[in-house]
Amino acid sequence: MDRFSGLEAKLKARVGDLSPEKVVFVGVGNRSRGDDAVGPAVIDMLADRVPQAIDAGPAPENVTGLIKRLKPSAVVFIDALLFRDLPPGTPAIVETGDIRHLGESTHTLSLDVVMEYLKAETGADVFMIGVQPERIADGEGMTPGLETATEKIASAIASALKKG
Prior knowledge:
This protein has six helices and six strands. By secondary structure, it is of the alpha/beta class. The longest helix has 18 residues, at 144-161.
């Protein structure tokens, strides 16, 4: 099982039985900072494939009101996360409260804070798909390896939500 089919299986176990309208995907990242764009890039690919896909840009705290109004059963953040020992492009499920222990976020306000807030406010299952970046640099586009990973992550998410 490769890293992307493993992601699909874990997502299916987590959100596969939920109504797709009740699962909100939130891409976090800065499109002008290389592989930090992975979250918004996945959201771009999901826009026509899942009912709820939000590009939060670099400030996920700015979309919490919108997310709460959707009354989700699950909220899945997608963001670059600097893990210590994973190859670039590797996705991993990260639980609320674990971000600061597993790797380094590229954002000023840790996603942990936003995730914990949404979990408390909505009662939803809130977690993250962290993706190991190869390069984060101002003014750079995504690396080819992360562009490929982005496509595979979007496909895994869309497949996990399909019934049957």
